[in-house]
Write a structure and sequence with these properties.
Elements (H helix, E strand, L loop, with lengths): L2 H15 L6 H23 L3 H18 L14
C-alpha cells in the first residue's frame, strides 16, 4: 500500500468523526484535536514525521469540523461543555 493510500485510510475516519458540538467553533476545535492525533499516528505508521502528520491532520480535521453542519454528523456534546 502506498503512503498516500495509508494517509487516506487514516484521514477518512478522522473526517467522519471530526464534527462534535453544536457551534462551528466547537466542531472545528474538536475536529482539529482528533485530526492532529490521527495525523500523528498515521505519519508514524507510514514512517513519516509525526509533527508534519499532526499539522496536516489537524488542518484537515478543523476544516472538516468547521465546514460540516451538526445535522450532517452529530456525536453529541463536546467534553469541554
Amino acid at each position: 500500500m502506498t503512503t498516500y493510500l495509508k494517509l487516506i485510510a487514516v484521514l477518512l475516519p478522522v473526517m467522519a468523526v471530526a464534527a462534535c458540538g453544536d457551534t462551528r467553533t466547537d466542531r472545528a476545535l474538536s475536529g482539529a484535536g482528533i485530526g492532529a492525533g490521527a495525523g500523528m499516528l498515521g505519519a508514524a505508521a507510514t514512517g513519516g514525521s509525526g509533527a508534519s502528520g499532526a499539522l496536516l491532520g489537524g488542518a484537515v480535521g478543523a476544516a472538516a469540523g468547521g465546514l460540516s453542519d451538526k445535522d450532517d454528523v452529530n456525536l453529541g456534546k463536546p467534553w469541554w461543555r
